[in-house]
C-alpha cells in the first residue's frame, strides 16, 4: 500500500486521548502501563487499535489475522532518547524494566552517546544485550515475507527510520528526523476464507479478527494487505504502518541534521553506515 493510501485511514495520534480524557503525551512518567487503565487493555492494545480502525481496514479485505507481542509503552520525555526508550519497551516483553537514566549513563561511559543519540545499530545491540538479555541479530531490512514470518513467530524488531512531524509515522527526511521504533507484530487483511478460520482462536467477538499463524500466512501470502504494529516513544498506543513505507524510510537514512551533528556520536561513515537499511532482530 502506498503512503498516500495509508494517510486516508491512518488515525491522527495527536487528537487521540487516553482513558483519562487527556492527550496520550500528557504523562511525564517513563513507564506508563497505567495510562491504558489496566493490564488487560495494555496487553490488547493492538487489538483495540484494529477495532478502532476497522471500517477503514476492512473496506476491501473483511478478515483480519494478527499476531503480536505484549509490550509496555514507555514515553520519551527528552528530545534524544528514543533508542533507550525502544530498548526499555523491548525489555518489557521479557519482564524487565530498565531505567532510562541508568541505560544512558552506561552508554555514555561506553562512548555510544553524548545527548541520548544512538546512531550506530551496533551500539543499540550492545545496549539490548545488556538490558534485554535475549539473543539479537543486526541484519539488513528483511523482505516482507521474512519480516512477517518472524513477527508471527514472536520475534521483535528495533527499526531506525525518519519520523513524521505529526504522528511519528515513517517519513522521508534523508535521516534528519531519525527515530527508533519497536516493531512488535503483524496484521494481515485477507478475503473471507471459512477453511482458514475454522480452527483459529477468535480475538474479537463482534469482528472477524483471528490469531494468525505461519500456515495461514504461507497459504495466503499474496491475497491481501499487510501491516506491522509499531510502538515508539511519542505515544502510549501502538500504530499500524505499511511495511514498504517503513522500509523506504529506513533505507533513506543518509545523514543527521547538519545543525545538530556536532552534538552526536556518529560512526565512521555517519548514519548511512550506522543505520541505513539495518534493523535489530530480537529472538524472543
Let me know the average pLDDT. Answer: 85
Count of discrete alpha- or pi-helical segments spanning 4 or more residues? 12
Q: How does the overall form come out from the CA principal axes?
A: elongated
Structural class category: alpha+beta
What's the Cα radius of gyration?
18 Å
In whole angstroms, the N-to-C terminal distance is 29 Å
Total number of strands: 9
Topology pattern, helix = H, strand = E: HHHHEHHHEHEEEHEHEEHHE
Description:
It catalyses: N-terminal N(alpha)-acetyl-L-cysteinyl-L-aspartyl-[protein] + H2O = N-terminal L-aspartyl-[protein] + N-acetyl-L-cysteine. It holds the Pfam family ACTMAP-like_C. InterPro entries: ACTMAP. Keywords: Aminopeptidase, Hydrolase, Protease. This protein is 32% helix and 19% strand. With 284 residues, it is of the alpha+beta class. It has a domain at 73-181 and 229-282: Alpha-Beta Complex (Cathepsin B, Chain A), CATH 3.90.70. Strands 1, 2, 3, 4, 5, 6, 7, 8 and 9 form a 9-stranded mixed β-sheet that branches. The longest helix has 11 residues, at 82-92. Residues 1-41 have low confidence and may be disordered.
Amino acid at each position: 500500500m502506498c503512503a498516500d493510501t495509508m494517510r486516508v485511514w491512518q488515525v491522527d495520534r495527536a487528537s487521540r486521548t487516553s482513558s483519562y480524557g487527556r492527550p496520550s503525551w500528557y504523562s511525564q512518567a517513563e513507564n506508563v502501563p497505567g495510562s491504558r487503565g489496566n493490564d488487560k487493555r495494555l496487553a490488547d492494545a493492538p487489538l483495540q487499535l484494529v477495532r478502532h480502525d476497522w471500517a477503514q481496514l476492512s473496506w476491501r479485505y473483511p478478515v483480519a489475522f494478527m499476531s503480536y507481542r505484549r509490550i509496555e509503552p514507555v514515553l520519551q520525555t527528552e528530545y534524544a532518547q528514543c533508542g533507550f526508550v525502544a530498548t526499555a519497551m523491548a525489555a518489557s516483553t521479557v519482564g524487565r524494566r530498565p531505567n532510562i537514566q541508568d541505560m544512558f549513563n552506561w552508554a555514555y561511559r561506553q562512548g555510544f552517546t553524548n545527548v541520548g543519540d544512538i546512531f550506530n545499530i551496533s551500539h543499540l545491540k550492545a545496549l539490548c544485550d545488556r538490558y534485554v538479555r535475549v539473543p539479537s541479530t543486526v541484519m539488513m531490512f528483511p523482505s516482507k515475507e521474512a519480516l512477517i514470518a518472524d513477527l508471527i513467530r514472536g520475534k521483535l524488531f528495533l527499526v531506525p527510520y525518519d519520523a513524521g512531524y505529526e504522528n511519528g509515522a515513517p517519513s522521508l527526511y534523508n535521516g534528519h528526523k531519525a527515530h527508533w521504533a519497536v516493531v512488535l507484530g503483524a496484521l494481515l487483511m485477507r478475503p473471507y476464507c471459512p477453511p482458514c478460520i475454522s480452527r483459529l482462536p477468535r480475538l474479537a467477538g463482534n469482528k472477524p479478527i483471528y490469531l494468525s499463524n505461519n500456515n495461514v500466512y504461507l497459504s495466503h501470502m499474496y491475497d491481501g494487505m499487510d501491516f506491522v504494529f509499531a510502538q515508539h516513544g511519542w505515544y502510549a498506543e501502538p500504530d499500524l504502518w505499511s511495511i514498504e513505507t517503513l522500509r523506504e524510510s529506513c533505507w533513506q537514512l543518509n545523514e543527521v541534521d547538519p545543525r545538530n551533528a556536532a552534538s552526536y556520536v556518529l560512526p565512521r561513515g555517519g548514519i548511512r553506515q550506522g543505520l541505513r537499511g539495518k534493523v535489530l532482530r530480537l529472538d524472543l
